[in-house]
Amino acid sequence: MNEYDLTPIETEYRGHKFRSRLEARWAVFFDSLKLRWDYEKEGFNLDGIWYLPDFYLPALNKWIEIKPEPKEGIDSFPKHFAFEYFKPGEFVLLQGKPGVWSYVLNGYADLEYVGYIWGDSNYFFCECHTCGLIDIQYDGRADRTPCKKENKCPKISANGDKGYNTASQKLIDAYFAASSARF
């Protein structure tokens, strides 16, 4: 058996019974970032198919679905019927575990997961360099966070569109907390 064939292990964390350790690790990640989360908060009838997203992150107004890394690798774009039912950017599928393979000091990390929204991939958690707001943005571009769009914080990249920050100390600490959690 290789690491991709593991059967999910029901895991308890903070009074919740998660369907898998992977989901519990993401809860630890959210807790480390002080992001409030609701586990399996609400189900939806999507044209006769009942669907229950794994998490809701109120501060980000995002529904999160957690999936393991596929056998063929993390670059395989997952098909998920829920993409077409939520508003653009409101539903994110996170594939893989919250962790880093390596990171460098310029705000970029080689992450062990990838986020998908409808029709697009490479969405990662990032942190605003100024106010510390955590968000999920394409390529972890912190210059796209809501605080920047509302002109509350200055953009740091020359073109105002990048400002990569997937490797802030807060995020790195959260990745390590999630990957080292023992249940």
Structure description:
This protein is of the alpha+beta class and 183 residues long. It has one domain. The protein is 15% helix and 32% strand. It contains three helices and eleven strands, in the order ββαβββββββββαα. The strands form three sheets. A seven-stranded mixed β-sheet has the order 3-6-7-8-9-10-11. A two-stranded antiparallel ribbon has the order 1-2. A two-stranded antiparallel ribbon has the order 4-5. Helix 1 (21-32) runs antiparallel to helix 3 (169-180). It is globular. 35% of the residues are buried.
Descriptive keywords:
single chain; 183 residues; alpha+beta; seven-stranded mixed β-sheet; two-stranded antiparallel sheet; 3 helices; 11 strands; 32% strand
In short:
The protein is an alpha+beta fold.
- Tally of separate helices: 3
Query: Helix and strand succession?
Result: EEHEEEEEEEEEHH
Globally, the shape reads globular
Radius of gyration, whole Å: 16 Å
The counted number of beta strands is: 11
Helix coverage percent? 10-25%
List segments where confidence is low: pLDDT < 50 over at least 5 consecutive residues: none
Whole-number average pLDDT? 89
Q: Which structural class do you get from the secondary structure elements?
A: alpha+beta
Q: Please report the distance between the alpha carbons of the first and last residues.
A: 22 Å
Sheet bearing the most strands, described?
7 strands, mixed
Across the major sheet, the strand order is: 3-6-7-8-9-10-11
User: What proportion strand?
Assistant: 25-35%
Number of domains as seen in the coordinates? 1
